[in-house]
Amino acid sequence: MIANTALQDIEAVLNLYKMASDFKKTVSGVQWPEFDRNMIETEICERRHFKITADGQVACVWSITFDDHQVWAEKNEDPAVYIHRIATNPNFRGQKFVEQIVEWAKLFALQHNRLYVRMDTTAGNQRLTDYYVKCGFTYLEDKKMTDTEDRPDHYHNATMGLFQLEV
Description:
alpha+beta
C-alpha cells in the first residue's frame, strides 16, 4: 500500500536508507551519504515523502518534488514531478516496487497537471539504467553536476543519469 510517510516512520526510513546505501555500494561502488534527518522530516511534513508498506513494515520509500533546477536546468521549466531516493528494504526486493511507484507517479503527475515524471541516478550502473527503461522511462543523458549547493553529498562531483517518462 502506498501512503505518505509519517514522522513516526523516521527511524525506519533512516535505517532503510542506510541499508540501501550499503547495498548500492556493493553493486555499483557508489554509496549514498547519511541523509540529513531534518531534510527527511521536512519532506514528511510537506507530504512529499512516501512509503510502501508490506507485512506491517516500511518496505520501500521515496520522495518527490516539483522543482529540480540544479539537475534539470532549463528542462525544469516543464511541468514535471521528480522522484528521488527510492530505497527498498532488502527483505522485500523483487516485489517490483519501482513499477508500482511508476504507476502511482503517473497518476500523481496527472492529478497535479504535470506532463512528465523524472528521475536521476548516479551514472554508470547499466543494470539500474536498463531496469528504469524497462519500467517505462526514457534514458535521456548523463549530466556532470556543477551546481550542488544544498544537495546531498552524492551529487557533489558526480555524473547523473537522467530519466523521463511522459504521462
